[in-house]
Specification:
EC 2.7.7.65, about 450 residues, alpha+beta, 2 domains, Alpha-Beta Plaits, binds guanosine-5'-triphosphate, five-stranded mixed beta sheet, diguanylate cyclase activity, transmembrane helix, Diguanylate_Cyclase
Amino acid sequence: MNIKNPRSSLENAGFCFCSAVPAAQQIAISRLLVCYPRQLNQLPWDNFLAQPAGFTPSPPFIQAYRQAVSTIDSISQSDTAIARAKGFSECVIALRRALTTTPVGWSLAVWFCWGRVPLGSIVSWLATAAFVWAGSLFVLQRVIGAGSKVDVHRSWVHWVAALDGFGWGLSTWFLVGYDPVLDAILMALLCGVTSINAQVYGTYVSAYYSQIGVQLAVSVLGLLTASNSPSALDFAAGLGVFIALTAYYSRAIAQRLMEGIRLQYANGLLAAQLRSALQKVELDAATDALTGQWNRRALDNFLKQQVELQTVAYQPFSILMLDIDFFKQINDELGHMVGDDVLRAFAHRLRADLRPGDFCARFGGEEFLVVLPQTALGVALEVAERIRKGIAQSPLLEKPRVQVTVSIGVSTMEQGQSIAELLARADAAVYHAKNTGRNQVRPSVNMPAQASGVAHQDFLM
Ligand SMILES: Nc1nc2c(ncn2[C@@H]2O[C@H](COP(=O)(O)OP(=O)(O)OP(=O)(O)O)[C@@H](O)[C@H]2O)c(=O)[nH]1
């Protein structure tokens, strides 16, 4: 084969590329480290709680918050194994990506060598490297398919890394010794590959040591025994120093990457804990502790939503105000504990009698309020009557046997009415029901009598 003289443009391109790669890698790694979250412990959690502007945390919120934050330490201690497993699988994915782009590196090497290295040598190197590469990719694919578990697949990944280093190291056996400039370019290319791999194997650095260890051993052996390069010893020394230094620095980088993964995991866990603590606190703040139904606060919000819906979508809604009759007697005769049981049983019975979309709140004492969305007065009266009958029909408690009745006032939201007016009208309807004998349903407006048998009386507010 006719070996041509080196072309200066090719030399320049090769040198520029091979020197730019390590620099670009270092920039990429630095960016990566900056992107990882900062130390969680340095975040001003307590300052956040102490901030007066715009946010006044309630005591249960502070308690839940502190509890979640206090778990940071235990999270950071216990998640090392999780970070290791995550780092391993991240490395496997990065390695597959790197291997799929390896042919780009080969093409570059072939381009540099074309016309300067005998074709047979180029083909021999390419064939060996491609064979090793295909085997590695196959193994890696199997590892990924099996879920890449560090305890199971550790040695397989080390083998793949070693073969990766072997393929590149072989280049010195086949391609070096034909042209001094080309030799230098190939050395720069090997340094570039080493540098790229510092990032590829960043989250599982022991595999990186396998890769560069084999790459160094094979390439130094190739330089010293197989190549005819006059600078073989210099190249071997240079390559050795470069790879050793890269290995040394990549260890620190890998440690920080792992710390980043660890903190990212802890951060996610903490955020989830805080979210659920917050949800619990929000739920606690909106429910009545005794009956488990919504409280006044939640009721106010729900009524506001309904008013908005009514304004936008012209959907009518009605409310039922329920007051247990002679409840004081129960307390007086059977005690407050039984009174509480009655309230609980009443709430349970009431809830069971409603649609899932209906809203049931304890309004205070022995009073409950039900909101029936998209319900006009006629239907609301029927619902109220059904509830009244159900309560009156069977006892709420068996031991002691307690049977109660309930008086119910019904009112429907009208356009332009306020929530306070709506509640006042329902309250007046209950008052009317109590005054006319209890255990009955009263509407708050004039309404024609219904076939349901509900006792409708003119009740003008
Ligand atoms: N056990 C118990 N009793 C409560 C609770 N909240 C309010 N009460 C009592 O409920 C009773 C309500 O009594 P009243 O307002 O006189 O009403 P009533 O006895 O039901 O009479 P009418 O409503 O006129 O039929 C009071 O004795 C309150 O102390 C509670 O959470 N548990």
